[in-house]
Amino acid sequence: MSAESNKLLFNRYFSEGTNKGDLGVVEEVFATNYVHHDPAGLDAVVGLEAVKEHIMTLRRAFPDLEFRVHDFIAEGEDIVIRWTVVGTHTGDYFGIPATGKSFAVTGMNHWKTANGKAVEGWVSRDDMGLMRQLGLIPGR
């Protein structure tokens, strides 16, 4: 798959999948054996159903969730995307009750693709900034 095709595919993932909750996009973007590595080194997200559940978990916690993509860098089968995500915490987030607070944090994803689908991924995001903005830990 060309770098341009990868850009279009992952743009669709963000615009339709995470931002609008269209879970059908997951099957277009990710391989059935997809593995997403957790940045904290915890359990990896494995497979299409796990990706869908992750999106639903985020959208339940932050119904107005919106990823704003700033950069796509694609070379061969690799793509790196830099983004800002904004939202309001109105539902449970991994055991954290709703705070009603809004946030904006930055991050990047790196995906390896094969045969036109993501097979492995990593994310780097500002979890500390998210926790501060939700009032869960003290700010500076």
Helix content: 25-40%
The CATH architecture classification is Roll
Strand count: 6
Overall mean confidence score, pLDDT: 92
Overall shape: it is globular
In the CATH hierarchy, the third-tier topology is known as Nuclear Transport Factor 2, Chain: A
**Helix-strand pattern:** HHEEHEEEEH
Q: Taking Cα atoms only, what radius of gyration do you get, to the nearest Å?
A: 15 Å
How far apart, in Å, are the first and last alpha carbons?
A: 45 Å
Strand content: 35-45%
Question: How are the SSEs placed, and which strands pair?
Answer:
Layout: H1 3-18, H2 24-29, E1 30-37, E2 45-46, H3 48-61, E3 66-75, E4 78-88, E5 102-114, E6 117-125, H4 127-133
Parallel strand pairs: 1-6
Antiparallel strand pairs: 1-2, 3-4, 4-5, 5-6
Question: Could you please describe the fold and organization of this structure?
Answer:
The chain is 31% helix and 38% strand. It has a 6-stranded mixed beta sheet with strand order 2-1-6-5-4-3. It starts with a helix and ends in a 7-residue tail after the last helix. The model has no long low-confidence stretch (mean pLDDT 92). The chain is globular. It is of the alpha+beta class and 140 residues long. The chain has one domain (3-82, 108-125): Nuclear Transport Factor 2, Chain: A, CATH 3.10.450.50. It has 4 helices and 6 strands, in the order H-H-E-E-H-E-E-E-E-H. The chain has helices at residues 3-18, 24-29, 48-61, 127-133; strands spanning 30-37, 45-46, 66-75, 78-88, 102-114, 117-125. A hairpin with a 2-residue loop joins strand 5 (102-114) and strand 6.
